Amino acid sequence: MSTAVQSQDPHPAVEPSYLVSKRGLMSWLVTVDHKRLGLMYLASVMFFFLIAGILAIVLRTELFTPDQDFMSAQTYNQVFTLHGAIMVFLFIIPSVPAALGNFLLPLMLGAKDVAFPRLNLLSFYVYSVAAVFLIVAILTSGLDTGWTFYTPYSTSTGTAVITATAGVFIAGFSSILTGLNFVVTVHKMRAPGMNWNRMPLFVWAIYSTAVIQVLATPVLAITLLLLIVERSLGIGIFDPAMGGDPVLFQHFFWFYSHPAVYIMILPGFGIISEIITVHSRKHIFGYKAIALSSVAIAVISFVVWGHHLFVSGQSELAGVLFSFLTFAVGVPTAIKVFSWVATLYGGSIQYNTACWYGMAFLWTFTVGGLTGLPLSTLAIDVHLHDTYFVVAHFHYVMVGGTVVAFIGGLHHWWPKMTGRMFNETAGKWGCLLVFVGFNVTFMTQFFLGHQGMPRRYYAYLPEYQVMHQVSTIGSYILALGLLWTLIYLLHSLWKGDKAPSNPWGAVTLEWQTQSPPIEHNFHETPHIHGSPYDFPEIDKSAGALHH
Amino acid sequence: MSNDHAHAPAHVDDDEHNPHLAHHFDTMGQQTASAKLGMWLFLATEILMFSGLFLAYFILRMFYPEMVLEAHEHLSKWAGGINTVVLLSSSYTMALGVRSIQLGDAKKLRLMLVLTMLCGCIFMVVKYFEYSAKFEHGMLPGKFYSAHLHGYEIEGLPHIFFGVYFLMTGLHGVHVVIGLAIMLWMFIRAGRGEFSAKNYVAIENTGLYWHLVDLVWIFLFPLLYLVK
């Protein structure tokens, strides 16, 4: 592939790209290049996305009829636990920050690398060890606690809780190291002239995410350590039979895991900010509002964990306060959505695949965000808690938000990362399948949940059958769309056209170097004089595409 | 690497050939500031991790105040007190070590690292005798608690207290051991002449870490040993 790239290049690069600057397997295994590590993360998270996605399809297939089909209750418990644990800890949390973030952050800042390249490599291997632990847990006695590991069940079940929590514990350190690296990179590695008001919004989002990763993940670490000790030594801190408090575990767990929701979605916001402005060729509306709303979300995210405990027996006063604070998250989030819509207004929108995903996000994420409001309303939550309404809500945020943004971002930066253009028509078909499949799958579940279908059951009452079947068919369409996307993206690596350095006419720095970039990113350290969204005249930038 | 000349702004020519400057930084100042910020962030994660345990401790005390009061009488105030003095002294020698290398005195730095490591080892030895005594008396965490079989009657649920005690002091002890390993590494590096008045951020970061280990103990000692 590499020789073909160079021979077809109309403007031969002075230096080979990062993909071919060093050769051999070892040059990848011990690389400290943030771009190569980004690709390695990308391959890893995609692998786990596939595994956990297959588990989801298996679950949906079991739910096609009300009775037990091919899975026992115990197997069903294990499969939904693994689906959740793998998706959360091995896919979504590292997806955008560790894969796209690693690749893009130094490029967008005009730096040669992240602040601590060796720590970055270590972080990847820590992640790999965590994955091994989780795989060992699956292959030994499995895991059936749900991804939340609630006590006292998690301290009494016979499955491999210690191995699995040890894996999540280790994955947490990978997350901390990546976050720490990114915070320092943003503070110390910006190119001359790149002040805080000139940073791309993706950087602001990754920065806010990294702050949460650094501040929240240590609490998860100690929570899981306490759980491991509780299970192995029975110290009695969480187990009511030994004098402990199981609700304390929920407080500990959600103190991390609610901010973790924003670790998952904030980078998605960053991607959408880039996609919307670049593909509508218009300066982003409300740059500072979007940038600071990321920070605001990061701050508020630490004080809303109690909304997971509305029916766990916390005090009424705490419930009211957490309910209010949860509503408060809606404000900075709505600021973002309105700003994106305002950016589109009057822009000269290019309807290509990345933009389609941006539009899809505006719909799916908004539905996900708005359905959070009934859940944060105390009285209504009592009815909806632990039903499919909750399942639908967080899938609209996690899949409709993060995954849609992630795939959109993958299309947006694919030419930069791989040096190849994918087929736009194929991309749009993929996006359409994903969008339709996703909405059919999960929109139905809002109604199921509202009618009382509880989550985490392998069998259900016959009156829910029609909607469950619609949802299952939707999940097949979604899976088809994702597989189709995987196929044409991989196909583009061999058959795709050579990507120009700036196919979308963007202004941020990663597009000012060749595609794919050289090992040290830029031939000369860039100097920044203005906003990352000051697009030249629309005619000029459109014309530049054909050069 | 060949294009490094093109990357570095003209005014940092002094740093161009500094062997301690990593390729992706432009100046030593940038590299040092990054290392320090990274260390402070790491310390923040440490504090948050320990804060989870402190929270568990406070919940325990809120639930079972009488039991905590009675159980803590079985911890040795003398051992804890000696260890407090030892760790505080080690923070002092560590600070002197950092000061020495800031003034370019690598020999004195090595001496101070040895003294700090000595204090750390004394701490661990005292801890060893403390733990041994607890093991002998059956004052073990959780389901291994058997002090009543050794003639110690503590009202309530003392197995939780000793669980939290071992978890907090144990995690702290692990940090002491890691600190000792880092100082040994720094001692070896200092022997190779890697540190100077211009390049001492690794020593400074080691010092910051060690002060945090000290600081955590400053809270652990009164909360566990001196409850009233």
TrEMBL record, chain A:
<feature type="transmembrane region" description="Helical">
    <location>
        <begin position="248"/>
        <end position="272"/>
    </location>
</feature>
<dbReference type="InterPro" id="IPR036927">
    <property type="entry name" value="Cyt_c_oxase-like_su1_sf"/>
</dbReference>
<feature type="transmembrane region" description="Helical">
    <location>
        <begin position="393"/>
        <end position="414"/>
    </location>
</feature>
<protein>
    <recommendedName>
        <fullName>Cytochrome c oxidase subunit 1</fullName>
        <ecNumber>7.1.1.9</ecNumber>
    </recommendedName>
</protein>
<keyword id="KW-1278">Translocase</keyword>
<dbReference type="Pfam" id="PF00115">
    <property type="entry name" value="COX1"/>
</dbReference>
<comment type="pathway">
    <text>Energy metabolism; oxidative phosphorylation.</text>
</comment>
<keyword id="KW-0408">Iron</keyword>
<dbReference type="InterPro" id="IPR014241">
    <property type="entry name" value="Cyt_c_oxidase_su1_bac"/>
</dbReference>
<keyword id="KW-0813">Transport</keyword>
<feature type="transmembrane region" description="Helical">
    <location>
        <begin position="119"/>
        <end position="140"/>
    </location>
</feature>
<feature type="transmembrane region" description="Helical">
    <location>
        <begin position="201"/>
        <end position="228"/>
    </location>
</feature>
<comment type="function">
    <text>Cytochrome c oxidase is the component of the respiratory chain that catalyzes the reduction of oxygen to water. Subunits 1-3 form the functional core of the enzyme complex. CO I is the catalytic subunit of the enzyme. Electrons originating in cytochrome c are transferred via the copper A center of subunit 2 and heme A of subunit 1 to the bimetallic center formed by heme A3 and copper B.</text>
</comment>
<feature type="transmembrane region" description="Helical">
    <location>
        <begin position="160"/>
        <end position="180"/>
    </location>
</feature>
<keyword id="KW-0679">Respiratory chain</keyword>
<feature type="transmembrane region" description="Helical">
    <location>
        <begin position="317"/>
        <end position="342"/>
    </location>
</feature>
<dbReference type="InterPro" id="IPR000883">
    <property type="entry name" value="Cyt_C_Oxase_1"/>
</dbReference>
<keyword id="KW-0472">Membrane</keyword>
<keyword id="KW-0249">Electron transport</keyword>
<feature type="transmembrane region" description="Helical">
    <location>
        <begin position="39"/>
        <end position="59"/>
    </location>
</feature>
<feature type="transmembrane region" description="Helical">
    <location>
        <begin position="426"/>
        <end position="448"/>
    </location>
</feature>
<keyword id="KW-0349">Heme</keyword>
TrEMBL record, chain B:
<dbReference type="InterPro" id="IPR000298">
    <property type="entry name" value="Cyt_c_oxidase-like_su3"/>
</dbReference>
<keyword id="KW-0472">Membrane</keyword>
<feature type="transmembrane region" description="Helical">
    <location>
        <begin position="37"/>
        <end position="60"/>
    </location>
</feature>
<feature type="transmembrane region" description="Helical">
    <location>
        <begin position="208"/>
        <end position="227"/>
    </location>
</feature>
<feature type="transmembrane region" description="Helical">
    <location>
        <begin position="80"/>
        <end position="98"/>
    </location>
</feature>
<protein>
    <submittedName>
        <fullName>Cytochrome c oxidase subunit 3 family protein</fullName>
    </submittedName>
</protein>
<feature type="domain" description="Heme-copper oxidase subunit III family profile">
    <location>
        <begin position="36"/>
        <end position="228"/>
    </location>
</feature>
<feature type="transmembrane region" description="Helical">
    <location>
        <begin position="110"/>
        <end position="129"/>
    </location>
</feature>
<dbReference type="InterPro" id="IPR035973">
    <property type="entry name" value="Cyt_c_oxidase_su3-like_sf"/>
</dbReference>
<feature type="transmembrane region" description="Helical">
    <location>
        <begin position="160"/>
        <end position="187"/>
    </location>
</feature>
<keyword id="KW-1133">Transmembrane helix</keyword>
<keyword id="KW-0812">Transmembrane</keyword>
<dbReference type="Pfam" id="PF00510">
    <property type="entry name" value="COX3"/>
</dbReference>
<comment type="similarity">
    <text>Belongs to the cytochrome c oxidase subunit 3 family.</text>
</comment>
<dbReference type="InterPro" id="IPR013833">
    <property type="entry name" value="Cyt_c_oxidase_su3_a-hlx"/>
</dbReference>
<dbReference type="InterPro" id="IPR024791">
    <property type="entry name" value="Cyt_c/ubiquinol_Oxase_su3"/>
</dbReference>
